[in-house]
Amino acid sequence: MRTLLVPLLLLLLIGCSESDSISSQISDQFNQAGTIDLAHVGPEDWDRVCILGPYSGNKEIEQVLGFPWDAEANTTIAGNEGINVLVFSRGASVVAYSEHPRRQGDFSSVASTCSTRREAKLTRKPGSWGLVWKRAGES
Question: Which of 8, 14, 101, 105 has the most neighbouring CB atoms within 10 Å?
Fold first, then answer.
């Protein structure tokens, strides 16, 4: 029993620390410049990021991602209004995800959308914690 428990605990700690690291990287960018370039966040092997808003369920999430992923088992998004979940994917596989506190940059206005890595830039809405996609050609 112990031989199974130790690897499981290590796996959980690694997953949590990667999610925390991604959220920390986002917060750092947001606090420094008010803009976020998600291309510089998370692991190297993702090609698309999707934003999930508070209270998202697996059925809605599958529509956003275009493939099934059990967010309800992996995150607290289905019952938590204080976070957004950023899902980093490659093809039809999730390579990383992060529960990001809305008080450190609120992605709610872009929830249920996805962006390619190249276009994954957001900027702070004036006078708020909210973020919006920064479109190509905008300074």
Answer: 105
Asked if 122 and 35 count as a contact pair (C-beta separation under 8 A), the reply is yes
Quote the number of domains for the chain.
1
User: Which residues span the domain enclosing 39?
Assistant: 2-133
Task: Kindly report the pTM of this predicted structure.
Answer: 0.82
47 within a domain of the structure (yes/no): yes
Reported as a single tens digit per residue, the pLDDT across 100-113 is: 999 988 999 999 99
Buried b (16+ CB within 10 A) or exposed e, 18-55: bbeebbebbbebbeeeeebebeebbeeebebbbbbbbe
Asked, for residue 139, whether it belongs to a domain, the answer is no
